[in-house]
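DM from R.C. (forwarded with permission)

"hey, sorry to bug you on a friday — could you get me a structure for this? deadline for the figure draft is monday and I only need the backbone to look sensible"
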Amino acid sequence: MKRVLEGILAVLIAVLSCIVFINVILRYGFESSILSVDELSRYLFVWLTFIGAIVAFMDNATFVVEKLSPANQRRLSLLTHSLILLLCIALGWGSLQKALQDWSDHSPILGLPIGLMYIACLPTSVAIALIELRRLYHLITRNDSFQQPQQGA
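My reply, with the result:
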C-alpha cells in the first residue's frame, strides 16, 4: 500500500512540476498562460498534501518523548493515539459534510466540483484512523515493557 501511495505522490509531483513550469515559461516567455493550470495545480497540491500525510503517518514520522519512564511513555502514547483517533473521526466527518455541501458548486475554469478538494481529507482521516486503531490494539494487548512502534509499523 505504501509503495502505491508513494507512486501516486511521485506522479502528482511530476505533473504539478511540469504544468507549473510550462505555465511559467509561457507566462514570462510568451506573455500567455494556460488558465486552467492555476486551478489544476491547486487541486493537485491539496491531494498531494493529504496523500503525503498518510505516507508520513505510515512511517511513524512523529515525535517520541524518551525522557519519560516506560510506564509514563505508555500512558502518554495511549492518550496521544486516542486523541489522534478522535481527531481523525472529526476530520473525516467534517470533510465529508463540507464536500457534500460544496459538491454542486464547480470551479470556474475546469468545472470540477469544489467538494473534490474537501473530500481529500476523507481517505486521509480513514487511513490514519486505521493505522491508529492498529497501534492502539498493539499497545493495549502488549504486556511487556513499552517500546515505541518502529518506523514503518
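R.C.: lifesaver. The chain is about 70% helix and 0% strand.
me: no worries. The longest helix spans residues 70-102.
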